[in-house]
Amino acid sequence: MEPLKTKKKVLKTALTRLRDKVASAIKDAESIALRLFESKTSDLFNDFKLLFDSIFVTCKPEELDDFIREKETIDDSIDELRLNVNRKMNKTDPEHSISSVSSCNASILSDVKLPTLSVPTFNGKIENWIMFKDMFVASVIENKSISNSMKLQYLKASCRDEALRVIQSISISDANFDIAWKLLEDRYSNKRELLNAIIKKLLSQPNISESSSI
């Protein structure tokens, strides 16, 4: 875990330096410099995403919420940086503005309406994981008619509360479904924690009163 924290520190320093550089240079920056800023911003976003995917898998359960909030803050900072660069690029390069609109339209078109399936929900209670997993595998994962990106959309729609926080930062794509599913597997398929949760649930049930003797 320490190497991941060290890499996170390095990336956060790189993000701060890029943000400062963009702030000081963007007013008079030419198109080629703006495209370089845009490229570096995208690279940092991808680096942070891969880093936090690894952190989410290896961190302690009690650390997960803090890391998720940290990633959300970083994502907001990168989005703001990207927005500032794109605004300047749209002013200096009209063709970039057209390209951005086309990319946006392509993204909207790719967000197709999902076919109706009977999908279970899971809120992160470990004692419910096995039932959810079996139902999701049967209704979604083994369904050959839908793509992995659709499966990831179903998965995100099925998760609630803590379970959703584990995968909410993962963008929708075919490649990312296996990553999201593995994150949930690694988090909730802990046999010891699962057994303890089931025993705790059984012990918390009220005692069944014995039938009155005749």
Rough outline = elongated
Return Rg in Å: 23 Å
How big a fraction of the residues is strand? under 5%
Question: Spans with pLDDT under 50 lasting ≥5 residues?
Answer: 94-113, 208-214
Major sheet characteristics: none
Instruction: Report the helical percentage.
Output: over 70%
Class of secondary structure makeup: mainly alpha
Count all strands and give the number: 0
Number of helices: 9
The topology string of helices and strands comes to: HHHHHHHHH
- Terminal residue distance: 64 Å
Average pLDDT across residues?
75
What count of domains describes the coordinates?
A: 2
Q: Which descriptors apply to this entry?
A:
disordered C terminus, 214 residues, 2 domains, elongated, mainly alpha
Q: What can you see in these coordinates?
A:
With 214 residues, the chain is mainly alpha-helical. It has helices at residues 2-25, 31-58, 64-92, 94-110, 129-141, 148-158, 161-167, 174-188, 191-203. Helix 3 (64-92) packs across helix 4. It is elongated.
